Amino acid sequence: MVNDNTQINANTSINANSIPETPIPARPPETPRPQAQPQRRVHRRGPLRQARLALAISAGKMVGTAGRVLGVGGGTSLPGMVARRIDPDVLKAVMTGSKAIKIVITGSNGKTTTSRMISEMAKESGNRLSHNRSGSNLLQGVTSVAVNFANVLGKLESDVLIFEIDEGTMQHVIPEIQPDVVVITNIFRDQLDRFGELYAVARSLDKVLEGLPETSTIILNGNDPQVANFGQNAKARRLFFGLNTTEIGTPVPEQSADVIRCIHCQEDLEYKVAYLSHLGLYRCPNCGYTLPPLDIAATSVKLAEDGKGPTHATLTTPEGQMEIEIPLPGVHNVYNAAAAIGAALAAGFPKQKLPTALSKLQPAFGRFEEIKAGDQTIYLAFVKNPTSFNLIMRLMMQHPGEKHILLAASHTVVDGEDFSWLWDIELEEIAPQVVDAICSGNKPEELAMRLKYAEVASERIRMIEDREQALDAALLNAGPGGTLYVLATYSPTQELRRVMQKRGWVKHFWEE
User: Which residues share a beta bridge with 438?
Assistant: First the structure.
């Protein structure tokens, strides 16, 4: 994808007078939707169809149990894969027969943490819950929720169903789920060889939203110029979340920002403040396109100076002001919390329960996860695009001292075979702090080359393709009592964490 983001500093004029100084008004309060949704018509299945459904669910449960017993998997995707081979309608059948509130979370970044926040809110509110908590978010992983939690007759006893769904899978899954609430966190460049450019992703998601009924609610990131425009022709109710403060942020988006021009007229957007990549308070000076009034808005944000948390924020909501403490670092987690609160309120969870639920949150595996390895500390971060990499890197820079790092990336279908995004990350910012770096994955030479162009000295870089050997070498570099930072794409994250699990440093990811 041709990206002319490099022109932003030279060509984007910032006219502070063109963006109002007054706070973005919140939408008037709306009556929360009751938890009990209108009863759906349950289509009766004939005896043969019912038997096929029972066989599909039974087979799925069996392979999931076998995987856990043998230690080769947690039943996060294989049960759904097997069940769909026997009955392709297994997910649709279970969803049609359920009266539970169905919440879907999608977007480029933040899906797993946002869904875990909503999960904690649902439990704190006294609901029985089913959730693809492990982050297995393709069609088979979503189907596994139905297989794992339903009985053999396809009946779910849950009050709330939470689905994290890959943005490229939404068009296939949403018609089968028919969700009550859909959350879209953001849209960033991600796996260009799989998704195509982000405008194609945006069009696909917008089309999905148009098919939702008027009883559904869509929760959209108002600070994202692409996402805020979604659902113009949708029948469903729309609510917008985001930040509205000048306490944090920069005057212009970072160089790797994906959306720097108006999505309607292509004029350079003007920013009063940019919070994260292209997310911020924006306005088009030509056609006037700007962010909508925010229903859930963080009007005050206090980030931890040590890059470890907690994070404090004040939010305005349709049900009044809310003070929250998130035991996680970073502005991205304020976005995640605002999105989760929007979904929780739309689902009818009591407002007073939500801050308590957030305070109990633990980081999902691989989300700047702190791991104790004897007397050493490992920070494991799953990175998959410039935005996530830059965000984690800047959190690292807040930690004192020089940095020992392990970079691991692989060219696989699930990781994305296109590595061009490596040249849009701001490695130059952290390079002076890098005392040594191990490059791993199936193309370590590309990572090493990127470090060299960031002016990390060649003698500080080693290439070790084997993941376990790379981890051992990196820990040796960190030394007794030292700290190691691991930044890895999807497959290496799973591989490295599996090594850590075998050594007793972490649990299986499906157990957390």
Answer: 406, 462
Rounded Cα–Cα distance for residues 364 and 284 (Å): 37
Q: What is the largest CA-CA distance in the chain?
A: 70
DSSP string covering 416-430: -S--GGGGGS-HHHH
Distance from C-alpha of 302 to C-alpha of 312, rounded to nearest angstrom: 5
Per residue in 252-286, pLDDT (tens digit) is 998 888 888 999 999 999 999 999 999 999 999 99
Question: Residue 311 in contact with residue 325, Cβ under 8 Å?
Answer: yes
Give the gyration radius of the chain's Cα atoms.
Answer: 23
pTM for the whole structure: 0.87
Rounded CA separation 7/260 (Å): 10
At residue 57, the pLDDT reads 94
Share of the chain above pLDDT 70, in %: 88
Alpha-carbon 394 to chain mean position: 18
Whether pLDDT at 20 is above 50: no
Q: In what order do the strands lie in the sheet with 101-106?
A: 129-131, 160-164, 101-106, 181-184, 217-221, 237-243, 296-302, 311-317, 320-326
Which CATH homologous superfamily contains domain 367-511? Mur ligase, C-terminal domain (3.90.190.20)
Every domain of the chain and the residues it spans: 13-359, 367-511
Q: Is the pLDDT of residue 65 over 90?
A: no
Joined tokens for residue 463: 């290439």
List beta partners, residue 103. Answer: 162, 181
Q: Quick one: angle between helices 47-70 and 78-86, nearest 10?
A: 150
Residue matched to tokens 């995987």:
67
What would the two tokens of residue 213 be?
A: 């009924």
Least confident of 10-19, 282-291, 329-338, 457-466: 10-19
Q: Determine contact, residues 444/463, Cβ cutoff 8 Å.
A: yes
Say which residues have a Cβ less than 8 Å from residue 364's Cβ, sequence separation at least 6: 112, 113, 116, 135, 512
477 within 8 A of 398, measured Cβ to Cβ: no
Contact assessment for residue 279 and residue 187, using Cβ atoms and an 8 Å cutoff: no
Domain 13-359 CATH class label: alpha beta
9: its two tokens: 């500093």
